Amino acid sequence: MANATTMPAFGNLQGVKVVYSAMEIAAPVAAELLAEWGADVTWIENTFYGDSMRDTTYVKELERRNQRSIQLNVFSEEGREVLFNLVKDADIFIESSKGPAYAKRGITDELLWEHNPSLVIVHVSGFGQYGVESRVNRAAYDLTVQAYSGYLSQNGTPEQPMAAAPYLGDYATSLMVVGSSLAALNKAKETGVGESIDVAMHEVMLRIGAYYMMDFLNEGIKYPRAGARHQNLCGIGEYKCKDGFIGICLYGAPQNKAILERIGLGHLWGTEEIPEGTTGLWLDGPKAQLIEQKLEEYLLTKTVAEVEEDFSNCKIAANAVLEFEDIINEPHYAAREDFIEWETIEGKTVKGPNIFPKFKKNPGQVWRPMPSLGMDTVDILTKAGYSTEQIEELCEKGIVKAGKSPVTV
Ligand code: COA
Q1: Class of 17-208+334-401 per CATH?
Q2: Pairing mode, strands 349-353 and 339-343
Q3: pTM of the predicted model, to two decimals?
Q4: Cα distance between residue 175 and residue 170, in whole Å
């Protein structure tokens, strides 16, 4: 197995060095994706209990692949110097904390740029680096930012708002971190001048939840929470068939005609109420309730497989709602090798998603499992120019901790 100093060269991010200090999902998953696309990723964990993600059983094995772990107290005076040494030749530094925790403790962007002028710095927080102080300094997880952003209030039933699971606010943030850091890196490579990015999770969710908000902002229109149906169109939602659930997304003129024919309302097509060429069957349309009722009745007489095949043949987007058991037996997933197995650091086989997306010329790779806590501290410090004596001294002072690898790598 490759160790900290012998990472293989692969992927579109070959040669890009990323250092991050964060826990859980939002920021670390961004680092995971970059690592899977070939970046060299160093994961800074605190010197007390490490990343709380280590409490999970399996997901940590997925979300910390291809990384190296150092335990470092970045907020001690000497620890800060170590951080500067780690980022001096890095391209991207990502941290996640409650507001401007780094700047408040003296690790400002300007100081980081003194050590590396072209560094792309990404600050991930619930509510940003500035704003109303009492808000900015709050702890935040997916659910609380979904609640604050207006995303959560749009999902669920009229009686019960519900968050979009699992952890949409975190994973959407990860993608925003990946995109924004690579955008800034593109510029920094050209100009030699770094960037600082303020990724506020509530703003990520505000942006991805803005579809219906646009109607509200501009015309004061609000749609009720629609549960398993769409806010304003017929034929969109999770419907019940004889033997299970199907997701249907009805849109387009030929599709509407085909569905009306199937549910016994074909005579409505081409009338004043539903003129030929109608692309959207709006819920405030004259026959909307009837269409929904007839569609629900029709679907209850059919199996999921029958509906999926028939609707797909009519170019209506329809898919059985697959359970995990169905997915692992689904031939399309197998044909695309969407699941792979790799060995954990303890030598156990673990199964999980492959690397996505699939790059044709420079594919990603899993070159290393999740490291154990602080397993690479010595390797990383040695590579950063520290002598054995200096490393021992940092360990004795508790500035860093050197964990043990459960196996020889
Ligand atoms: N060295 C020294 N101190 C460190 C450290 C390190 N490497 N890593 C963390 N710490 C400090 C933190 O600054 C914090 O100090 P504080 O409580 O005085 O502010 C303390 O250790 C606890 O760390 P933190 O990561 O903030 O844990 P937490 O349990 O208090 O909060 C979060 C965890 C995730 C709620 C918080 O970090 C947060 O809101 N992050 C931004 C949003 C986010 O990423 N949410 C999670 C999405 S999955």
Answers
A1: alpha beta
A2: antiparallel
A3: 0.96
A4: 9
- The protein residue whose alpha carbon is closest to atom 41 in ligand 1 is 125
User: How far apart, in Å, are the Cα atoms of 166 and each of 89, 143, 330?
Assistant: 35, 10, 22
Residue 169 alpha carbon, nearest atom of ligand 1: 47
Instruction: Pinpoint the residues of the chain covered by CATH 3.40.50.10540.
Output: 17-208+334-401
How far apart are the CA of 401 and the centre of ligand 1, in A? 18
Query: Among the atoms of ligand 1, which is closest to the Cα of residue 167?
Result: 48
Q: For residue 72, how far is its CA from the centre of ligand 1 (angstroms)?
A: 14
Q: Give the residue numbers annotated as catalytic, written as ranges.
A: 170
Q: Which ligand 1 atom minimizes the distance to the CA of 24?
A: 48
Helix (H, G, I), strand (E, B) or coil at 296: helix
Q: Tens of pLDDT along the chain (409 residues)?
A: 445 458 999 999 999 999 999 999 999 999 999 999 999 999 999 999 999 999 999 999 999 999 999 999 999 999 999 999 999 999 999 999 999 999 999 999 999 999 999 999 999 999 999 999 999 999 999 999 999 999 999 999 999 999 999 999 999 999 999 999 999 999 999 999 999 999 999 999 999 999 999 999 999 999 999 999 999 999 999 999 999 999 999 999 999 999 999 999 999 999 999 999 999 999 999 899 999 999 999 999 999 999 999 999 999 999 999 999 999 999 999 999 999 999 999 999 999 999 999 999 999 999 999 999 999 999 999 999 999 999 999 999 999 999 987 754 4
Q: How far is CA 191 from CA 47, 90, 122, 185, 337, in A?
A: 36, 16, 18, 10, 40
What does DSSP say about strands 120-125 and 92-96: parallel, antiparallel, or unpaired?
parallel
- Please report, for residues 29, 232, 388, the alpha-carbon distance to residue 315 in angstroms, rounded to integers and kept in the order given: 36, 21, 66
CATH 3.30.1540.10 domain range(s) in the chain: 236-240+245-320
Q: Is the dihedral of CA 349, 358, 166, 121 positive or negative?
A: positive
CATH 1.10.287.500 describes domain 236-240+245-320: no
